[in-house]
Amino acid sequence: MSAKDRSKEGSMKAITANRLRDGEVVFLGEGGVWVESFAEAALFPRAEADGVLAAAKEKAEREQFGVDIYAFEVVEQDGIPVPATMRERIRTAGPTVRLDLGKQAA
Amino acid sequence: MNHIAPGARAGIYHYDEIDRQFVAERVEQFRKQVDRRLSGELTEEEFKPIRLMNGLYLQLHAYMLRIAVPYGVMSATQLRKLSAIGRRYDRGYGHFTTRQNLQYNWIKLEDTPAILHELAEVDMHALQTSGNCVRNVTTDPFVGAAKDEVVDGRVYAEILRQWTTMHPEFTYLPRKFKIAISGAESDRAAVRIHDVGLLARRNDKGEAGFSFYVGGGLGRSPFVGKLVREWVAQEDFVAYLEAILRVYNQYGRRDNIYKARIKILVHELGLEKFTQEVEEEFARLRGPKYRLDPEVVDAIRQHFAPPPFEELPDHSDALERAKAADPAFANWLAVNVAEHKAPGYAIATISLKPAGGIPGDATCEQMDLVADLAERYSFGELRVTHVQNLVLAHVKKDDLYDLWKQLDAAELGSANAGLIGDIIACPGLDYCALANARSIPLAQAISARFADPVRQRTIGELGIKISGCINACGHHHVGAIGILGVDKKGTEYYQITVGGDPTLTTAIGDILGPAVTETEAVDAIEAIVDVYLANRSGEGERFIDTLKRVGHAPFKERIYAAD
């Protein structure tokens, strides 16, 4: 089953942005606080994600906090939530060719 | 030691007061624009085109800043500044691109005005490296040194740089516009895959001028540039280019981003009609206002005066002794060193493609070393090539061994220029927000598979070019072997093409068969090489020529035989 099929099964989404001032990849955490680690990202059922995204987007743009705000699919792998697509997995971790860079190096 | 005398420099363009003031004003303008963005006075929609015009992209992990290296030429001082910026504001490295520029991948918006200020201190900037404007004009990395030069391409590239910077009519074109100039009749600038490519030629009277190719380009609709004018006199070259841009600005599509390049206009109008429009515009423009004043050309040419070459014999005993004593050096000499027009000198290509390494990346330590070597061995000047390597263009033959030993110690001494290890790869999905697949790991795997320098020499000239998406920043369309990364239901696959050619005999590669996985792709490349070696008519027959002679069938059969 492809990652995309699994994600539909899992039906969860996370919300992400790039922080405006420094471009850092951030995720919407609990209580509407933006966090830098995907492990702390809040997960939203698909049915709710659009509404949460719209509100988060409006607030982040109004406060000049973030840009390029969107939701992405999350699936469960060995009991741990992971982004469904390669693109988002790389975005949450860092370049696969430089493990000493990005969030994976922290 | 035969070092260059202190103070002896190769000519590079030095800003005058007007240039410095212009860049300083633009830096200050952008500083205020960033402040207004951060305060919310400018929305992202308003700010984005401004940000792009200053070379700042938003990529997968952070902002990416693209520094202009005009026609790929810079001084050791400038390279040291790029290194310092990489240390202070980025993660200790930079990436040299297929347009002879440099990119940093971890930039902060709030730092960018300070970075641009530091760049301005060494006569550099990031202007027009993005956006729908005329981008960095690129040229032959052997410019000013090659034996086959008709004109010095830097002179005309510099004229175009000045003419296109903030040109009031061409600042918001339908789409980006890329120009390449080759000052030699041998095309080392890939002119026919650019929106406009200029190739220096002599007419029947022996006068130097330019052939104009228009409508080349890669991306999702690759086209080879068409010859629009066989010969334009030097004094008319700005007027002719202006005529082309005016026709493009007037008729180029703005309704569809994928149909907005000039290559689409040339294709849709047809060459005859397009040429007619250009010639009519040129006839209107031609006159004193657009005629290139020889005095202006000479003034710019003075910036690129040849360095103070010594009178040397062409033969170097020191070189011959080193060659005989050190096979690894002899190999590098044969592969990475080209003939220079001044006796006793040579053109050295510094490979940024160590086996298993990331094509085009250089650490700040490596940049500092190359800056030192440029000062010591090449009159303080170096070039970035569109194949993502560096060039020291004026090295004494006597100094080549010392140079190579220092390069080799810093993993910059790979003997692979033009060979299978000299892979072009875009940043791909590891960095780029547009990518569908990763390109760098595949480049690393292939270069590691073919690491043996003897094997690379045996294979000979074979350019592999890898793109992580259809935008083709890795030039895969014109690779002798091209590889395009695609996403098939969430898994990375790689489509292999063969038969591409970036030189004047430009050709777009043909798809060989169904896309394969990364592991299969590395094996497929090896299979292609095996088939080539088994079928070539002799050691002198290049891969591209064997392919033309035997066709695709033997290669397809071998790769897809089990399917």
Description:
The complex is a heterodimer of chains A (106) and B (563). Chain A has 106 residues and is α+β, with helices and mostly antiparallel strands. Chain A is built from three helices and six strands; from the N terminus they run αββββαββα. Chain B is α+β, with helices and mostly antiparallel strands and 563 residues long. Chain B has helices at residues 17-39, 44-53, 76-89, 112-121, 153-164, 237-251, 262-269, 271-285, 294-303, 317-325, 327-336, 364-377, 400-409, 440-449, 453-459, 518-535, 543-550, 553-560; strands at residues 56-58, 63-67, 73-75, 93-96, 102-107, 138-139, 179-182, 196-202, 208-214, 226-233, 337-339, 345-350, 361-363, 381-384, 390-396, 424-425, 464-467, 481-488, 491-498, 510-511. Chain B folds into four domains: 17-121, Sulfite Reductase Hemoprotein, domain 2; 145-303, Sulfite Reductase Hemoprotein, domain 1 (2-Layer Sandwich); 317-409, Alpha-Beta Complex (Sulfite Reductase Hemoprotein, domain 2), CATH 3.90.480; 424-560, Sulfite Reductase Hemoprotein, domain 1 (2-Layer Sandwich), CATH 3.30.413.10. The chains are: A alpha+beta (106), B alpha+beta (563). The interface between A and B is medium-sized, with 28 and 33 residues.
Describe the protein's topology.
The complex is a heterodimer of chains A (106) and B (563).
Chain A: H1 3-10, E1 12-19, E2 25-28, E3 34-35, E4 44-45, H2 46-62, E5 66-77, E6 80-83, H3 86-93
Antiparallel strand pairs in A: 1-2, 1-4, 1-5, 2-3, 5-6
Chain B: H1 17-39, H2 44-53, E1 56-58, E2 63-67, E3 73-75, H3 76-89, E4 93-96, E5 102-107, H4 112-121, E6 138-139, H5 153-164, E7 179-182, E8 196-202, E9 208-214, E10 226-233, H6 237-251, H7 262-269, H8 271-285, H9 294-303, H10 317-325, H11 327-336, E11 337-339, E12 345-350, E13 361-363, H12 364-377, E14 381-384, E15 390-396, H13 400-409, E16 424-425, H14 440-449, H15 453-459, E17 464-467, E18 481-488, E19 491-498, E20 510-511, H16 518-535, H17 543-550, H18 553-560
Parallel strand pairs in B: 6-7, 7-8, 16-17, 17-18
Antiparallel strand pairs in B: 1-2, 2-5, 3-14, 4-5, 4-13, 8-9, 9-10, 11-12, 12-15, 14-15, 18-19, 19-20
Helix pairs in contact in B: 1-2, 1-4, 3-12, 5-9, 6-8, 7-8, 10-11, 14-16, 16-17, 16-18
